[in-house]
Specification:
The complex is a heterodimer. Chain A has helices spanning about 35-45, 185-195, 265-270, 285-300, 305, 330-335; strands at about 5-10, 15, 55-60, 60-65, 70-75, 80-85, 85, 90-95, 100-105, 110-115, 145-150, 160, 170-175, 195-205, 205-210, 230, 235, 245, 255, 260, 280-285, 310. A seven-stranded mixed β-barrel of chain A has the order 13-20-17-18-15-14-21. Chain A has a six-stranded antiparallel β-sheet with strand order 7-6-9-4-1-11, with no helix packed on it. By secondary structure, chain A is α+β, with helices and mostly antiparallel strands. Chain A folds into two domains: about 5-165 and about 310-335, no CATH class; about 170-295, Cyclophilin-like (Cyclophilin), CATH 2.40.100.10. Chain A starts with a strand and ends with a helix. Chain A is elongated. Chain B is α+β, with helices and mostly antiparallel strands. Chain B has two domains: about 15-95, Gyrase A, domain 2 (2-Layer Sandwich), CATH 3.30.1360.40; about 105-250, Beta Barrel (Cyclophilin). In chain B, about 20% of the residues lie in helices and about 30% in strands. Chain B has helices at about 35-50, 75-90, 120-125, 130-140, 230-240, and strands at about 15-20, 25-30, 55-60, 65-70, 105-110, 140-145, 155, 170-175, 180, 185-190, 195, 200, 225-230, 250. Chain B is globular and about 60 Å long. The two termini of chain B are about 25 Å apart. The chains are: A alpha+beta, B alpha+beta. Chains A and B meet through strand 16, strand 19 and helix 4 of A and strand 2, strand 3 and strand 4 of B.
Chain lengths: ~350, ~260
């Protein structure tokens, strides 16, 4: 048995996997990791199943001590990470020896960072998932003194790194029309597309508020809409016309009108947009959205092959200049991503 | 085919099939709540589950729609729409039988008192005395029209037109197990929440029981009667309640 004991932890850290689909008709949304791509990246770095649970850390990480030798990987929002005080790369896997301390600090950008253990984090499943679902009261926040027990690690390399495109600063996300888009007048839809939003302070695993100057975005008959199914990515207009983008832990049905739906492959960008960062919504056709989603899923399927060896963590090398650097051992991208 | 004629949104004729997000499709039977459209949604959903099509992730229902989540990279929108259209045309879903396996629940409920302080106001709005309201609500056999918002939380109805009361503008905090009323429906709250519906009854029924073998006891199509009990009786029930049933009993509904 190995794992990590938690000595220090940020306020919003919970176990997450791909969630528990299949209970919508009973009012329980899928939930699971806010950034599913990060789960796939961590799994690729450890050459293991993307359905295993990882620790999701919002904004900041914590301090952890290895109970035994183990492998870990770090993915999602890049955070300052150190092993026994030595900076280590993000989007990478590392070996930890018994007694070593892993510290994970604040996110440099983005919101949700992920700590993966070789073999996944073992915890009791509820309805087929280890995800905490805070809205439903399933599971809870990780606390100081908790153990993150590792599952059976199939073994494999540590010291791998992935090049990851930056999805941690907001930007333009693609949306498709949804069932209530027609309730919004054409000029409102146009203004919605033309508006530069910023991520507001009201945000959690259920949804994220979008702020903008000027009028809100209201639908006709807004107060008389029959409560209807919600899907993750729906952009819901609350009473004052301020949009909320709903994430996987959202409620299952709702009566507020939804102007559009963020396509699944772009939802991680919304989840990872830090407070105050810009975000725009662009309507695309169904065909464009399907092409983008297919490309995204192909990229995820290819992640395992995209992992490359760190050779040695540069940060471990005391006198970097005395080494003959092997071509490709340090990618330019890695250098930019991780300015430790 | 569609006997429910929607009175608003003249652009749409029902039933209508629409995309919801990139990987969902929604079959909507009305834009207003009514017994036939809810019946249609429940029956159509049951037929979808029986059909067991490949590439379907999951299905669900709302008050007047059936929902399908699917894998659009392996089942095209056009193909799914064609299948749903064919199934829609297979029969008059507004007159279909409700799905089998439904249960009737009898749930002890305190109406009024400090536990449910808005009964008097609701009775007044419905044009009856508190005693009449308790008789009326306590005898109503309501259907789980849909489960949503929170795990296991039922929307129940329809109640008679005298209970078609608007939601309140000011929100009140209600506890778990609260029976609240508006727009000819009840909602039985899963967890403490603010609501604009009137808090007319209080039960010990937990809609979501993560520590129990059956964590979500209710299913859309089930029926409930909220039987009046005294405040003292409910407190006694809750004191010895270990499962979250709140003294409720259930039996199968014969078809």
């Amino acid at each position: 048995m190995t794992g990590l004991v938690v000595h220090r932890i940020g306020p919003i850290a919970s176990l997450q996997d791909l969630g528990r689909p299949g209970f919508l008709k009973q009012g329980l949304s899928c939930g699971g990791a806010a950034d599913r791509q990060a789960l796939a990246e961590g799994a690729a770095l450890l050459a293991q199943d993307a359905r295993l649970a990882a620790l999701e850390m919002a904004g900041t990480g914590g301090e952890f001590e290895a109970l035994g030798d183990m492998r870990i990987a770090l993915s999602g929002a890049p955070m300052h990470a150190m092993i026994d005080g030595t900076p280590v790369a993000w989007n990478a896997s590392h070996g930890l020896q018994a007694g070593q301390r892993l510290t994970i600090g604040a996110a440099r950008t983005g919101v949700y960072g992920y700590l993966h253990l070789g073999g996944g984090i073992a915890a009791a499943e509820f309805l087929g998932s280890r995800s905490a679902h805070l809205l439903a009261g399933i599971g809870g926040m990780i606390q100081v003194g908790d153990w993150l027990t590792a599952g059976a690690d199939q073994g494999g390399a540590a010291g791998l790194v992935l090049e990851v495109a930056d999805r941690f600063r907001g930007g333009t996300v693609r949306v498709v029309p949804s069932v209530q888009t027609d309730l919004f007048a054409g000029d409102v839809l146009q203004r919605f597309q033309d508006t530069g939003f910023t991520r507001g302070p009201r945000a959690n695993r259920m949804g994220i508020e979008m702020l903008s100057d000027g009028d809100g975005f209201t639908a006709s008959g807004q107060l008389n809409i029959l409560s209807e199914m919600i899907v993750p990515g729906d952009i819901q207009m609350t009473g004052d016309g301020a949009p909320y983008v709903l994430l996987p832990e959202c409620q299952t049905t709702g009566g507020y009108p939804r102007i559009a739906t963020v396509i699944p492959c772009d939802l991680a960008i919304v989840a990872q947009t830090p407070a105050g960062a810009p975000i725009r919504f662009e309507f695309v056709t169904l065909e464009q959205a399907l092409t983008a989603q297919a490309q995204h899923e192909a990229r995820l399927a290819g992640l395992k092959n995209a992992c490359r060896s760190l050779i040695r963590d540069v940060a471990d090398i005391g006198d970097l200049l005395s080494y003959q650097l092997v071509d490709g051992a340090i990618s330019a991208h890695w250098d930019k991503e991780d300015d430790t | 085919m569609a006997p429910m004629t929607p009175k608003s949104e003249p652009a749409a004729t029902f039933p209508v099939i629409r995309n919801i997000g990139l990987d969902g499709m929604l079959v909507t039977f009305s834009d207003m709540l009514g017994e036939p459209s809810n019946r249609a949604a429940l029956a159509f959903h049951a037929a979808l589950e029986r059909a067991g099509w490949d590439q379907i992730g999951e299905t669900s229902t709302s008050l007047a729609s059936a929902f399908v989540r699917f894998d659009p990279l392996h089942l095209s929108h056009a193909d799914l729409r064609a299948r749903l259209t064919e199934l829609l045309h297979a029969r008059d879903w507004y007159r279909a039988d409700l799905p089998p396996g439904r249960r009737l629940w009898r749930v002890p409920c305190v109406y009024g008192t400090d536990l449910a302080p808005q009964l008097a106001e609701a009775a007044d709005a419905a044009g009856m005395s508190e005693a009449q309201a308790i008789d009326c609500l306590g005898a109503a056999r309501v259907r789980v029209l849909a489960i949503g918002f929170a795990p296991g939380q039922p929307y129940l109805g329809p109640l008679g037109p005298e209970w078609n009361l608007p939601r309140l503008k000011a929100l009140q905090q209600v506890p778990a197990g609260a029976l609240v009323q508006a727009i000819s429906q009840f909602v039985l709250f899963t967890a403490p929440a603010p609501t604009g519906w009137r808090h007319v009854g209080q039960t010990g029924f937990r809609c979501f029981r993560p520590d129990q073998p059956v964590p979500i006891p209710l299913t859309p199509g089930d029926e409930l009667v909220f039987e009046p009990v005294s405040r003292a009786d409910l407190i006694r029930i809750q004191d010895r309640d270990e499962t979250g049933a709140g003294g409720a009993t259930s039996q199968g509904i014969d078809q």
